[in-house]
Specification:
The complex is a heterodimer of chains A (411) and B (246). With 411 residues, chain A is an alpha+beta fold. Helices cover 54% and strands 17% of the residues of chain A. Chain A contains 13 helices and 13 strands. Chain A has a 6-stranded mixed barrel with strand order 4-5-10-7-9-8. In chain A, strands 2-11 form a two-stranded antiparallel sheet. The chains are: A alpha+beta (411), B alpha/beta (246).
């Protein structure tokens, strides 16, 4: 459609009005630049928040106990709620829709862990096998805990990569005996985690073994489970049901928010998703608005240019130019100005995002990897070409409607 | 080549309309050099626009090289225009930012002639009007006479059957006018029908035939001395009684 001659003419015309072309192009470049930077920043925000969710199952509900804050059935507020194995069993059997579940039993403080003279101090987390899914633990060697470990109170441990490195150095830890508080455990697996470094300094033990070995009786610190593909409403119902069960078992007011903390990640994530789509929508509105301002500028300039060239267009028509070829000439000029300027804006925008990325601290959690993906670049490009065509449309129509008789009339 | 029968054209004007051409009958043969004379407002420019397919007509018949030219779309009109008709204007209308050779090559561009061939032919036509040495000059670097010769070369580039010239010498002095007329006479000899609008008698006398237009009608149509006609002007039937001429 655009051959070498049309190109030549566009370059010629654009360079005859350098300042005007540059200013017009700048408006479009600025529009695309803003769009890209805003979208990239939006993505950075989204990545930051996704980062917060990265090492936990998004569809999970976390329950931990607190202290009552309301009097209930003649009982004073201020009682500590202590969850037990029975609570855990009841929750996972009675709450409908529970998929993977685990309780956690915290052993207070770090424990001395020894292997052949190497010693370290690590946190112990005693859990059910389902914990692997909930925490998105990645077993890289050996296996995770299983039901048999719990049923038989086996003294087995799954250790984090940091633990393995500090106790065993280069060698593998699987199959070796370590001592936790002078009690011997067999390492059956090594895991990695996408979360923070601290997640890799953990040692997982079967909850049954840990309760027995570390004098935990039947105490449980946390109950967590995934909700499968439950909707937001269903997950809320599950959280409510959980609260009801524990309120009955421990005699506290179900309305007492301090007695039991139920953290619904489905709800959190949903809120985040809604927020992100609102931000994204806002960004598009602002960006596209800026771009439209640029496009209107191009359209205006093209109208002026067509008016200036009325006589020339009349001559072209007298020489056999069809209305179609005139429309093509104007559209091609408009699309080229927008495309070239827009492309420069795109590059500048991406450059700024890259710069931002490079300057951000590694562990920044609310703003990460501001970037535009291929999809955005493609939509921006399509948008540009459409914008150019739109900007050229009215001027082109006016140019095509020029009547040579009038254009060529001698003053 | 050109055959007009009972051609009518009017322009809407306010509530009514302005009847400009009131039944034109005209035949122009191949290779004729004809001038159209008439006072301003007599309809000569409108006639030329209609013949040049720049404007439509309301009624009557127009055949160009045997092809019916009524009810053309804009695109069809543009095609025939490029194929059949070349224009020369009083104020040249060269495209100011294109060199002479580029101006001459432009009609060929719209005919879809490949670039190399286009430039070769443009150079040829420039040579024909004696301006080979000005090929890469811009219009503003040339005299009026030279510009008009470039315009003629451009009109010829697409090898039209009809060349229409609207006051081609109107902006030129008498010496260059004569030069331009000689170029036009040379074109006639190649078999192109040339139609010139002019109000200058001595220019008209350099053509073969003069058609007088008054108030949208042809009142006189006679050969000049150049064509071997007598100076006695035969009265056309349509305008019996004769009219005074300036």
């Amino acid at each position: 459609m655009i051959d070498r001659d049309t190109w030549g003419e566009i370059v010629e015309i654009a360079s005859r009005n350098k300042l005007r072309t540059a200013l017009t192009g700048f408006a479009v470049a600025w529009g695309i630049f803003m769009l890209v930077v805003l979208l990239g920043s939006g993505n950075g925000l989204a990545h930051g928040i996704e980062h917060q969710f990265r090492d936990d199952a998004i569809n999970s509900i976390w329950v931990s106990s607190g202290r009552t804050s309301m009097p209930y059935k003649g009982l004073q507020p201020g009682r500590q709620v202590r969850m037990t194995n029975d609570d855990y069993d009841e929750v996972i059997t009675r709450v409908p829709g529970v998929e993977h579940a685990s309780a956690r039993f915290w052993i207070f403080g770090n424990q001395q862990v020894t292997y052949r003279g190497e010693t370290g101090s690590f946190t112990i987390r005693a859990v059910h096998p389902g914990h692997r899914i909930l925490e998105r633990t990645k077993v890289i060697e050996g296996r995770f805990l299983n039901e048999l470990d719990l049923a038989e109170y086996r003294k087995v441990a799954v250790i984090g990569t940091v633990v393995e490195d500090s106790l065993f150095g280069e060698a593998s830890g699987v199959g070796k005996e370590i001592a936790i508080n002078k009690i011997s455990f067999l390492v059956v697996g090594v895991f990695d985690d996408d979360g923070s470094e601290r997640e890799k300094e953990l040692i997982y033990l079967p909850i049954s073994t840990a309760q027995r070995t570390f004098n935990g009786q039947n105490r449980v610190s946390q109950i967590l489970y995934t909700t499968g593909d439950a909707s937001l409403a269903a997950s809320r119902a599950m959280a409510g049901e959980t609260r009801e069960i524990l309120a009955v078992n421990h005699t506290f007011d179900p309305e007492d928010m301090r007695a039991l903390f139920v953290n619904n990640n489905v709800e959190n994530f949903q809120r985040f998703v809604a927020m992100m789509s609102a931000i994204r929508g806002f960004v598009w509105v602002v960006g596209v608005g800026t771009l439209i301002a640029g496009v209107v500028g191009v359209s205006n300039i093209m109208l002026v240019a067509v008016r200036e060239r009325t006589r020339e267009i009349g001559v072209r028509k007298a020489l056999g130019a069809t209305p179609g070829s005139i429309v093509r000439l104007v559209l091609a000029e408009s699309v080229s100005i927008t495309a070239v300027a827009g492309y420069l804006g795109l590059i500048a925008g991406v450059g700024v995002l890259e710069g931002m990325s490079a300057l951000l601290p590694e562990e920044s959690s609310f703003f990460r990897n501001p970037e535009v993906d291929l999809g955005v670049a493609v939509s921006a490009t399509v948008l540009l070409i459409l914008a150019g065509a739109l900007a050229g449309f009215f001027p082109a129509r006016r140019a095509a409607a020029i009547r040579p008789v009038e254009a060529l009339r001698d003053e | 080549m050109i055959r007009l029968r009972n051609l009518h054209k009017s322009y809407p004007m306010g509530s009514g309309s302005l009847h400009v051409l009131k039944g034109i009958d005209l035949d122009l043969g191949r290779g004729e050099l004809v001038s159209i004379m008439g006072a301003s407002g007599s309809g000569k420019s409108t006639l030329m626009n209609v013949v040049g397919l720049l404007d439509r007509f309301d009624e009557g018949e127009y055949r160009l090289d045997g092809v019916d030219m009524s009810a053309l779309t804009e695109t069809q009109a543009a095609r025939y225009r490029g194929q059949f008709v070349g224009f020369v204007f009083q104020s040249f209308h060269l495209i100011p930012f294109k060199t002479a050779v580029e101006n001459v090559a432009l009609p060929l561009f719209y005919q879809g002639v490949p670039r190399r061939e286009r430039n070769r032919r443009a150079a040829e036509f420039l040579e024909q009007v004696g301006l080979s040495d000005r090929a890469h000059h811009l219009p503003k670097e040339m005299s009026g006479g030279q510009q008009q010769r470039v315009a003629i070369a451009r009109a010829l580039a697409a090898q039209p059957k009809v060349l229409l010239a609207d006051e081609p010498t109107g902006a030129l002095d008498s010496v260059t006018s004569r030069e331009v007329m000689e170029v036009l006479q040379g074109i006639q000899e190649q078999g192109v029908t040339v139609l010139i609008i002019t109000h200058e008698h001595d220019i008209a006398e350099m053509t073969d035939r003069i058609v007088h237009l008054v108030d949208g009608r042809i009142v006189e149509d006679y050969p000049t001395a150049r064509a071997g006609g007598s100076q006695a002007r035969p009265q056309p039937a349509a305008a019996a009684g004769g009219e005074a001429r300036a």
